[in-house]
Amino acid sequence: MDRFNSARSLVRALAPTRPITCLRPDAAARASRYFVRNFPGEILYAVKTNPMPEILDAVHNAGVRRYDVASITEIDQITRRFPDARVSYMHPVKSRDDIGQAYFKYGVRDFALDSGDELEKILSATDNADDLNLLIRLAVPNFHAELDLSAKFGMAPLAGAELLFKCRSLAKRLGVCFHVGSQCMNPSAYGTAIHMVRDLIVSSGVTLDIVDVGGGFPSAYPHMEPPPLNAYMGEIALALKTLPVGDGCEIWAEPGRALVAEAASTLVRVDLRRDGFLYINDGTYGSLFDAGVPGFIFPARAIRPTGKVSGRLAAFSFYGPTCDSLDFMKGPFMLADDIGEGDYIEIGLTGAYGSAMRTHFNGFYSDEMALLTDAPMLTMYRPGAATDWPSADGPLRQNTGNAS
Ligand SMILES: Cc1ncc(COP(=O)(O)O)c(C=O)c1O
Fold first, then answer.
1. Cα angle 357-300-393, degrees, rounded to a multiple of 5
2. What CATH class does 3-22+264-378 carry?
3. What pLDDT shows up at residue 394?
4. Could you tell me the fold of the domain covering 25-260?
5. 156: how many CB neighbours lie within 10 A of its CB?
6. Contact by Cβ (8 Å): 197, 211
7. Radius of gyration (Cα) for the chain, nearest Å?
8. What is the pLDDT of residue 72?
9. Domain residue extents for the chain
10. Which residue's C-alpha comes closest to atom 5 of ligand 1?
């Protein structure tokens, strides 16, 4: 893969006609190292967030050996690539075929569930195995996250307590998991959820072997500057102390976004400008889903192939290349006010749920990639300080210079 020291050098060397995923694997490694060193338990990388080989390798090289997977395809990819990996099937609804394959073909033992029907499926598909690690998914409030992950999955406390009780005698190890919602902006969400787990342990009278605090750890986007990650680690460590569990209880987390958001940006070209609207060659059916309905505002900078863009910034919205009006990204994305057709835009922080969600809709699909060696446009991880970054330092180091 070609390597450049910035998106600007890439544009000047290649003048690409299709969108390019610009990878910064070092950023994924740096974030992974922070989590491995600072989270008080095991890190399971949520593979769905970004399964590109370069990113998987960076996360693995940083010391992550466990993976939260959602499908047989992910299980197959991870077990082939990393023979030392342990995969945990944390999707609460799975087909019988997939459960059976995961158990018998790939040796998976960790399964999440949030209903009695799913328990029945897991038991029958594994021939009533007696070495299952079962994790009950609890629904938790979503006061602070951009994307709710407790509407579709997760049990209410009473039903959760009943299922927990039932699973105690069936599971080798028994756990509870939850997801506070993606891009969780307030560490207290983890405290609230862990206190719900405490109430569940008390009401069910069951001992737990695993508490899995899920994903949700934030990344830094314009207009969304979360508290430092140390505040999340502190809140979790404090809340865990209140749990009536033994020393042997394992603590897991399944971060996705926070590990890889900074590890890619998307380089697009402007095909047309209509006032404050830029028609670009990638969109919500490509690498920019989160800029659509979820309305994430990504950092962006304009790059002119020859010459310079204006130093004055203006607010723009984007239209993607497909015929669908939903292929719209409201922004505002702040860019040089004289940007126009033929200019490029580097859209930063697209490493999480970016290229992983590309479709071929309308025939637009680009798998072109390049490696960049410069810093991500925004970061939660100060260079060299990922292990001991004091919370008082503030959350962000910003690198928003106009590249032209
Ligand atoms: C079960 C599960 N774990 C972890 C994650 C990763 O979440 P995040 O990217 O917010 O850290 C997700 C995201 O959808 C998920 O569904």
1. 100
2. mainly beta
3. 36
4. TIM Barrel (3.20.20)
5. 10
6. yes
7. 22
8. 98
9. 3-22+264-378, 25-260
10. 215
